[in-house]
Write a structure and sequence with these properties.
403 residues, alpha+beta, seven-stranded antiparallel β-sheet, six-stranded antiparallel beta barrel, 6 helices, 22% helix
């Protein structure tokens, strides 16, 4: 009887231990956490010590990727996590550059003095004045020019006096003297007046050889000018340059000779079309910026040099992978996205991006068609991963994997 009682007690105790061990196994991997603060973990129900919300039951996945982030339904809803499947589609390769209007240097001209002398009078004294071609621009006193005038009159008189029977060819001497006056800036009409009046005026009027707006005056009244010295620089505003700066990564969209659209905010965002006239072949190594110029017409002269502009350069559509710009996280030279790898599970992945077009950005490598990508709530996932693990989700990525 005593042995029977001992055997019965042992059986009950063993059964109890077995049930206890079995219950422990059933509860293994179960924990309680806060839907708003997933770093809080407890082995029994209760309240979150941070926000005092009820802890919810959760199960640990032993096979989960340590680099992935698991969220609850509540976190996905509150974080407005939205996904989309990436596919190939038409991508309009367009870039918008900032720039300014500038003079077309190919149409700029200088009015210069062909003899040395003193400026007695300037007919145009302000930068911005319009000078028509053939208009008087300056009165100049030149001792050298006056001597040449006197030489011309002397040859003229001697030709009349010794017209017959002279061994000297006065006609050739006269022509040579006249040519000198023409080369020094006098006009045919001025030489005719000199010949008719037979009198030298100490001051000679010089006329503009070009038309345009004065961009720079090099002399002033009472000042001296050397032979070949510039009196004024003139600019023709019938065409202008829209000069814009493009980064090295944008140069593939810039094709010299192609058309571009220039938008001018200062005149109601009016748009002008022009051709890319020049792209600097040398890249600035310090800034990685290149200069491009677009030649645009300015028939009404309402465009002014110095106005800010936006230059749109567009190429034919291509069939590439693209995402909304907000889906891509960029940090210096790296770019990454969050993809959904399983239900309520997300992982960061490095990508290589191309050009931007409006609200979308081209994905060159790192993703494949059919990948489910987070397009809203990316910054929340990034912050949540760092908050939960204490590490940067991109720390273990190899930049070469997207090449």
């Amino acid at each position: 009887m005593r042995n029977f009682i001992f055997l019965l007690c042992s059986t009950v105790l063993l059964y109890a231990c077995t049930n206890k061990e079995s219950g422990k196994k059933l509860e293994e991997g179960i924990y309680y956490t806060c839907s708003m603060h997933p770093q809080v973990e407890a082995d029994k129900p209760g309240l979150c010590p941070i926000c005092h919300m009820d802890l919810v039951r959760a199960e640990k996945n032993k096979n989960a990727d340590p680099n992935a982030l698991q969220l609850s339904d509540e976190q996905i809803r509150l974080g407005n996590i939205q996904t989309d499947t990436i596919r190939h589609g038409d991508f309009n390769d367009e870039i918008v550059l900032t720039g300014t209007l500038n003079f077309n240097l190919q149409t700029m001209q200088s009015v210069s003095s062909r003899v040395m002398g003193r400026i007695e009078k300037l007919y145009y004294k302000n930068v911005g004045d319009y000078v028509p071609k053939g208009a008087p621009i300056a009165d100049l006193y030149s001792e050298e020019l006056n001597n040449a005038k006197q030489e011309y009159l002397m040859v003229w008189e001697r030709r009349k006096k010794f017209a017959d029977g002279s061994a000297v060819d006065f006609e050739q001497l006269l022509q040579s003297s006249k040519t000198k006056l023409l080369l020094w800036g006098m006009t045919e009409k001025q030489i005719q007046v000199l010949q008719q009046e037979q009198k030298i005026t100490p001051v000679t009027t010089f006329y503009s050889t070009a038309s345009g707006y004065i961009t720079e005056l090099k002399v002033s009244e009472g000042g001296y000018v050397d032979m070949g010295g510039t009196i004024a620089n003139l600019a023709d505003l019938s065409t202008l340059w829209a000069e814009a700066q493009a980064y090295s990564s944008q140069l593939s969209a810039v094709d010299p000779g192609s058309m571009a659209m220039v938008r001018v905010p200062d005149i109601g965002n009016e748009i002008f079309s022009g051709r890319i006239d020049f792209a600097n072949p040398q890249l600035n190594p310090a800034t990685r910026i290149n200069l491009i110029r677009i030649l645009i017409p300015n028939p009404a002269h309402k465009l002014k040099p110095g106005m800010p502009v936006y230059v749109s350069v567009q190429r034919p559509e291509t069939n590439n992978l693209s995402l909304p710009v907000d889906a891509v996280l960029r940090d210096g030279n790296t770019s990454s996205v969050w993809i959904q790898t399983a239900e309520k599970t997300f992982k960061s992945k490095m990508v290589k991006t191309g050009l931007e077009s409006g609200s979308r950005i081209e994905i060159i490598s790192g993703l494949h068609e059919g990948d489910i990508v987070v397009v809203a709530g990316t910054y929340l996932l990034y912050s949540e991963f760092i908050f939960k693990t204490g590490t940067d989700p991109m720390a273990g990525h190899d930049q070469m994997e997207v090449m």
